[in-house]
Amino acid sequence: MRQFTAYRKELPQSLSANAGVHSQDLGQIETLNDQAYRERRREYYSEYRIIRGGDIRWIEARKFISYDGDGRPRGVRIGNASC
Questions:
Q1: What DSSP assignment string belongs to 25-76?
Q2: Which domains, and CATH codes, for the chain?
Q3: Verdict on whether the full-model pTM lies above 0.70
Q4: How high is the mean pLDDT in each 10-residue block of the chain (83 residues)?
Q5: CA pair distance 80, 83, nearest whole angstrom
Q6: DSSP 3-state assignment of 23?
């Protein structure tokens, strides 16, 4: 399981958590992420495509979000399975 810090910072595309996400799925993933933070969800699930080495693969991602005492996102754990 990989861990990411849940703060917004512009990263080079190659280091972004969304690096390689299929362009047709990127908007959906960003909307799901934003909605989860707004609703203070602690867990959510998504499916999307990634492009690796010219191949398209499906990813199932389960994300676990922790918040500090003020309700701000503190961290995200992501479990991925590819098909």
A1: HHHHHHHHHHHHHHTT-SEEEEEEEEEETTEEEEEEEEEEEEE-TTS-EEEE
A2: 2-82 (3.30.450.20)
A3: no
A4: 45 58 91 91 91 90 90 83 69
A5: 10
A6: helix
